[in-house]
Request: fold
Amino acid sequence: MATSTETRFSLDGVGRVSLAVAFLAIQVLAFVAAYTAGRPTWYAFFMIGSTAVTAYVIRGDSFVVAAATMGSILMVALGLPLFMFVARQQPAIVVEKALNPDVHRMLYLGIYGPLLAAIVSLLFGVPLAHLFSEGFAGQQLVESLVDLPLVVPHSVAGIIILFGFGSGGAFPNVSVLGSMIGMVLAMTFVSAPYAVNATREAFESIDDRLEYASRIHGANRWDTFRRVTAPLAIRGMVTGGVLAWARAVSEFGAVAVVAYSVSFFYPPAGGEVTAQHAPVFVYGTYLQGGLAESGAVAFILLGVSALIFLIIRYLTSDSTTTGGIV
Amino acid sequence: MSLHADVSATFTADGAESFHVDAEIEVERGESLVILGPSGSGKTLLLETVAGFHPHDGPVTLDGRTVSDTPPEERDFGFVFQDYALFPHMTVRENVEFGSRYHDDTRDGDELLAELGVAGLVDRYPPTLSGGEQQRVALARALTIRPEVILLDEPLAALDVPTRQALRDDLADVLADATAVYVTHNRTTARALADRIVIMNDGQVVQSGTPEEIFQRPESPMVARFTGSNVIDLEDAPSIRSTLDGPSDDVVAIRPEAVEFDGDDGDVRATVERVVREDATNRVTFIVDDTTVDAFADRAPTVGDEVWLTFPENEIHVCRQTATATP
Reply:
């Protein structure tokens, strides 16, 4: 599918990156112009039209032009609200929220809690993913259980967790309701499938013969995993961890049911503080302060999340993980 | 170090019928045994089973010591894979020295790489190497640990012809004194490297012997065809049958190079059907009665020409007697 056999516009002369940057710059300029003119709808039509024209200029293939045009309609649905969201922020409120200690705690908890959930998901998910990649009797049943949170409404997931681990649950001495443990558990419940599945795909993509080669030349199973399997699957593990982290950051339903507010150690305060997970905090701000205030908080959260995502992507890119070799 | 294996294993894959391997091989110290067979005959699975990669029934013994229940890392084998199986995240040197930490008596990796003509690659990563270079590195990795037996799974199959020929010469030197089991579907390679050959088909050994025995006296039409002989059902070739004293309606084999083609003189009338140039000679396909026969000729005849062939009786080998083949 990635093979290109015909181009009307030489990409070699301009470069794919330059072309993408130019296209993006034109889109931003067009949006700014349309927004300034008070006609953001015009931008929606411009985006669809400019995509079709670009596809025609580059490929001149009616199939590609049709696919790009249809795809751009979805991009309008996804991208236009984001553009509008950024453009409609009121800087004064954003600055005010950015200086608010409650928002700082929310951001800390919103990164720290999901990080714990991602670590737990990987710690126990990687061995399970390895078993999945090798196959075992009854595997489909276990796989279904792992994937269950993907189809269960997350408020229902929260209820299930309370039944399993809350008052009268399997571990009476462990308090999950309104606790950090409960919040991490709720996040892990919904994010573990992402960690397991991404890691499993990475394990499955490794040729069995590499592990055979390791074994026959003297490494036992532990050493083979440490020296061959894990290094080759590391990108899949990191991807799984990032997906699990991102899913936990965005989790609302299960966390709202299990741990609406939690107490945790907050280093800047030097002690325990109480705060809400970011989506719960944004929702609370929306109910109390309206769209403008919740939008400013959401804007800050979006910026921080995007920044962390980009840093992780950079750290796990081809060139930084393997010297561009693998 | 001698190796004896009499193993049985069943393999299943999604969407495919299960495949059963049940075979016995024996290799004496310093001997190169070649397992030769068509694709899908189970020779790679047999080799992997002997190496300990798959659960199996039956014994695998090294100098009488049973290693059937021993994990691969304790069997003292080296293994060279068809697709090299070099660790892509390690440099060439790290690949070659991978097994050194697990073995006391090892060879110097740099020295081995130099012997194999790839000394300059030590700091390169496998994906940046050519197929021939990767296979030399894989060979060095297997030899570094001084294995008792070296197992090779079609190590030349993925290489272009000139590289294959060069590496085959190097392999012949390496295997000269080693105890080795070499899997291939290429009869030229088998003939060049083997002290003894085992022919496999459908998961089982169908014939074993010296290269001479396998190529000159195939015990079945399948072995005869696979080793390049003409397989002739004498019922379809009365002209040939009439020149023979012995068999009447058997299936016989004769190597193409044994069929004498002299244009105007011979015992059997034939028509030239096809001429294919092969390096320094021509492979000529003749129609004889209701069958075809291949022979080699330095001078290419014209397609459609009527010629005479001779089938020396001492070169004809009965590979299936009709009486025993028919239930």
Observations:
- Chain A has two domains: 11-88, 95-322.
- Confidence is low (pLDDT under 50) at residues 1-6, 320-326 of chain A.
- The domain at 95-322 of chain A is CATH 1.10.3720.10 (MetI-like fold).
